[in-house]
Amino acid sequence: MAVGRNKRFIIYNLNINSRNQIFLRKVKSCSLEFTLISLLWINTNTVGVLDTTERLHLIDVHTLSRLQVVTRVTDIGLCYNTAFYRSTTTGGNVSQAMKVSARYAAYNSVVSYPGGMWFLGSKDILKVASTSWKQRILPAVMATLR
């Protein structure tokens, strides 16, 4: 399980014993150079972290290194759920914390699937698939051989 807030995310190991008690053990903590608005697992080795400038950072959970940055997300006009967080249908009677959260609330606009993520935008829909180590290293190797 992974949870994140501001410029940090934490990975936990979740276990349930024979008495149905839940135990969380902190596995890793990662400090980021940017503020996150969405954090999703792509596969067992990679998380996708969307930042406030709508760039997607693919991060290896074992080394906490950035594998790739996808900037195409800004082109689709990501949909934010500000109306729900500002409670515009009920006259705006929400806490200050909810109002602050509204600026980057994109919880239904970013969805992961095994090996990638989908982004819902007002202009387009974007599918981002993670690449294997071989797919990432091959172009660099080929460039040095030329």
- Percent strand: 35-45%
Helix content: 10-25%
Q: Can you count the helices? A: 3
Radius of gyration: 18 Å
Extended strand count: 10
Shape: globular
Could you characterize what this model shows?
The protein is of the alpha+beta class and 146 residues long. It is built from three helices and ten strands. It has helices spanning 82-86, 96-101, 133-145, and strands at residues 2-5, 8-16, 22-31, 36-43, 46-51, 56-60, 66-70, 110-113, 116-120, 125-129. The chain has a four-stranded antiparallel beta sheet with strand order 4-5-6-7, with no helix packed on it. The longest helix is centred in the last third of the chain and has 13 residues, at 133-145.
Topology:
Layout: E1 2-5, E2 8-16, E3 22-31, E4 36-43, E5 46-51, E6 56-60, E7 66-70, H1 82-86, H2 96-101, E8 110-113, E9 116-120, E10 125-129, H3 133-145
Antiparallel strand pairs: 1-2, 2-3, 4-5, 5-6, 6-7, 8-9, 9-10
Describe, in short, the structure shown.
This protein has 146 residues and is an alpha+beta fold.
Features:
146 residues; alpha+beta; 4-stranded antiparallel beta sheet; 3-stranded antiparallel beta sheet; 3 helices; 16% helix; 42% strand; globular
